């Protein structure tokens, strides 16, 4: 059926104050429960539309327990402001929880996320024609594609992070053209 959800995010965890516009998200889409043996094991959202003051994100999303990858997202955006999304993160280690980045990445598990964006703003850099494809597993994150166009040229890159115990290794390639 049809889904409409309004939610708020607070990086500072202060739920007593009024949220600013960047902290308000509106989600709409067509959703279906995923069933297996008469049990609900996940949700599939098609024609997902996530809208906030500085974001415009649409696409399909599914989360299914027991499936590998358990989360699959195929997203598109006319306008994505990464700077404002980063502002939603905790400002200091004291405001964050006790987990570090490697622990958080390990906890993600198998996932597959792709994004096509016409315009992305990150800090003071404007990007266009952004293509991002990432697949994570039990012990790796594979950035299969990160391509974009900047005012200074074109970027094509790939990278992979693998870990064993508490040690992570990063491998990657980047090609610049029209610089």
Please give a structural write-up:
This protein has 179 residues and is mainly β. 7% of the residues lie in helices and 63% in strands. The protein is built from two helices and ten strands. The chain has helices at residues 82-86, 101-108, and strands spanning 2-8, 24-36, 39-52, 55-64, 71-81, 111-122, 125-136, 140-150, 153-164, 167-177. A ten-stranded mixed sheet has the order 1-2-3-4-5-6-7-8-9-10. The radius of gyration is 18 Å and the shape is globular. It starts with a strand and ends with a strand. The mean pLDDT is 85.
List the defining traits of the structure above.
2 helices, mainly beta, 179 residues, globular
Radius of gyration: 18 Å
Helix/strand order? EEEEEHHEEEEE
Report the principal-axis shape: globular
Overall strand count: 10
Largest sheet: 10 strands, mixed
Mean pLDDT: 85
What are the segments in which pLDDT stays under 50 over at least 5 consecutive residues?
none
**Looking at the chains present, what oligomeric state does this protein adopt?**
single chain
Percent of residues in helices: under 10%
| Proportion in β-strands | over 45%
- The tally of helices reads 2
Q: For the largest beta sheet, what order do the strands appear in spatially?
A: 1-2-3-4-5-6-7-8-9-10
Please report the distance between the alpha carbons of the first and last residues: 48 Å
| Strand-pairing-aware structural class | mainly beta
Topology record:
Blueprint: E1 2-8, E2 24-36, E3 39-52, E4 55-64, E5 71-81, H1 82-86, H2 101-108, E6 111-122, E7 125-136, E8 140-150, E9 153-164, E10 167-177
Parallel strand pairs: 5-6
Antiparallel strand pairs: 1-2, 2-3, 3-4, 4-5, 6-7, 7-8, 8-9, 9-10
